[in-house]
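PROTEIN ENTRY
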Amino acid sequence: MGIRNSAKAIIIHEGEILTIMKQDRDGYYYLLPGGGQNKGENLHQALKREVLEEISAVVEIGELLCIREYIGKNHEHATYDGDTHQIEYMFIASLEGDRSQVMNGVLPDDGQIDVAWLPISSIENYRLYPKALRPYLIEYMAEVKPPVYLGDVN
């Protein structure tokens, strides 16, 4: 399997971040909306398409905040995604419509059960992946930018 590019949206409104919700045997966990880039798409096109599919929302894409590399064999989920090698480009984004319009989209992510707004002030209490992003979100709210490249983290 090759390296896959993925675009993710960091959508923050009134101190909360918009996520998609999934569930496994350990309970609920949360991911940023977005997903894989298709051949022929640029990252912005991929992000707009994925967000629309997953949360039924149109977004305006802002700055590239950070890049995360994920090499599955190096992390706790290696037994089922050890062949995964993904580079995620995380962009600040804002909703073009009203927050109340956000819901599971017409093509939700595999295993997606809902969308959730998580308070950034207590983000450490949630299983948000990548976990390494959580402290940077808290710092971002205090106007401290994270490093652009986060490395191979989960």
About this structure: The first strand starts at residue 4 and ends at 13. The longest helix spans residues 43-55. The CA atoms of residues 120 and 137 lie 7 Å apart.
